[in-house]
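Human: Here is a favour to ask of a fellow structure person. Comparing notes only helps if you start from a blank page. Give me a protein, with the fold worked out from its sequence. Please set it down just below, with no commentary around it:

Assistant:
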Amino acid sequence: MRDLIACALAWALSALAPRRPGRHSAEYLTALPTPGPASVSPWSRPWTGPTKEEAAEFFRRQAEDTMELGVIRERRRALVLATMGVDYDFPTINITGIRAAGDGVAV
């Protein structure tokens, strides 16, 4: 008996209260949000590389960094040789013989 009363009460309340439209009803299909513009995929156009000016700037900065590292390396080498008592005047000096006689100091 309770089940019958509960079903009747649920039917009466559902008739009085508004419900959402069913999934296959026309109301539901018209209430769907309209899709916005399709997003553009980054893969839809070919990848473009750097311009000539950007590449030249990159390689110029790389060459400056390499030159700066070379100067730092030469200064460190001159410092190590100075601690060994060797005058390091020219960056093109052959130091392999000095390195072998340098008591294990790496240059």
